[in-house]
Design a protein that fits this description.
This protein has about 375 residues and is of the alpha/beta class. Helices cover about 40% and strands about 15% of the residues. The longest helix is centred in the last third of the chain and has 26 residues. It is globular. The two termini are about 30 Å apart. The model has no long low-confidence stretch (mean pLDDT about 95).
Length: about 375
């Protein structure tokens, strides 16, 4: 993140969109409407659980994705998705608790678990999803306190849990008494539109606690996330209030007006096309410049590419040589709790310009091929 805006760097590392991907004009107009309608209240304290009308918009959007109708009182806004994850995991995890998660998994979530002194149970994921029989055996053996997963366009793998496995996974966790923390931050970036979340399979809120944000779809700078804690609502809301009283009033009002103007859907349609073009450019460059025994799977949306490099690759050396030529990327080791079997990297296709994206990949390919 410190390198995110460093001049002269082709940043393929930080998982952030480029400035040209942000709906700056629409957000500016939304701010004007919020200021006009809210007046001085826009700069005052407000409800600890968030702007009521924003939460109504969030409930309506989730309902359009197949989730049972929610009321605003079942949703809590947060400062980004990270705060939502932090609070949920702090409620569910004690030192020594086992937490099941995907392998590879988002490094920020692994850092939260490390701070909580949890023990991580990695569950390898692939294009076909999970083997539920193997998963059940692991759950029974290790008895995790919770399962954390990003079922749509998982970061960093880009994989999406098949629809056919979603309800069975929720049923399995219900049977074994395991809380699911569903991170849906990339759900709206799926090329075919946002699929039904796991929350759809749990109307009672006893199994799934849902978190998301608008950092990847609208703006990371406004820092608006949210959580549907389910039966953990009261504990979550209290912990949230203890942390910061409430999230940013101005940001929530801007997002509320942005959603009220129906600006999200056309922006998402454009953004999905932008991301697809970036991925296509990156894949073409990878295929023409990377070593033949590099493997990767093209995701069905989003802007991340995850790849396994040739076994002899020295990642530390590659990082240093690439940095010397002005290119940075995310090393795969950061997404595991132990050294993985093969060297891997994650590339972000969304921040660099199209020209820089291709040039950065070509530089990496040349460096890889020169040290085979």
């Amino acid at each position: 993140m410190r390198q995110a805006d460093e001049p002269g760097i082709i940043n393929l590392a930080a998982g952030v969109p480029g400035p040209d991907a942000l709906p700056a004009d629409s957000l500016s107009q939304a701010f004007g409407r919020a200021l006009h309608s809210d007046g001085a209240a826009l700069f005052a304290y407000h409800h600890p659980e968030g702007d009521h009308f924003l939460r109504q918009h969030l409930a309506d959007r989730l309902h359009s994705r197949g989730v049972s109708p929610l009321t605003p009182s079942q949703i809590v806004t947060t400062t980004g998705c990270t705060q939502a994850l932090n609070i949920l995991l702090s409620l569910l995890v004690e030192p020594g608790s086992v937490v099941a998660c995907e392998a590879p998994a988002y490094y920020g979530m692994l850092e939260i678990l490390s701070t909580l002194r949890a023990r991580v149970l990695p569950l390898p994921v692939g294009p076909e999803g999970w083997n539920l029989e193997t998963t059940e055996a692991l759950f029974r053996e290790h008895q995790p306190a919770c399962l954390v997963l990003c079922p749509t366009l998982s970061n960093p793998s880009g994989l999406t849990l098949p629809e056919s496995q979603r309800a069975p996974l929720v049923d399995l966790c219900r049977k074994l008494g395991i809380r699911i923390v569903e991170d849906d931050i990339y759900g709206e970036l799926a090329d075919s539109g946002a699929p039904r979340p796991l929350l759809h399979c749990d109307p009672s809120g006893e199994v799934v606690s849902f978190v998301s944000s608008f950092s990847k779809t609208v703006s990371p700078g406004i820092r608006v996330g949210y959580c549907v804690p389910g039966t953990l609502h009261e504990a979550f809301a209290a912990r949230k209030c203890q942390q910061d009283l409430h999230s940013c009033v101005v940001s929530e009002a801007i997002l509320r007006e942005f959603l009220a103007a129906n600006a999200l859907e056309p922006h998402l349609q454009w953004l999905r096309l932008r991301n697809r073009r970036r991925r296509q450019l990156a894949v073409a460059a990878l295929r023409s410049t990377f070593p033949e025994n590099t493997t990767f799977i093209e995701p069905e949306g989003g802007y991340m590419l995850w790849m396994n490099l040739p076994p002899q690759t020295d990642l530390l050396s590659l990082r240093e040589r690439a940095r010397a030529e002005g290119v940075v990327f995310a090393s795969g080791n950061a997404f595991f709790t132990a050294t993985p079997d093969s060297p891997s990297i994650r590339l972000n296709c969304a921040k660099a310009s199209e020209t820089e994206l291709v040039r950065g990949i070509e530089i990496l390919g040349r460096l890889l091929c020169s040290h085979r």
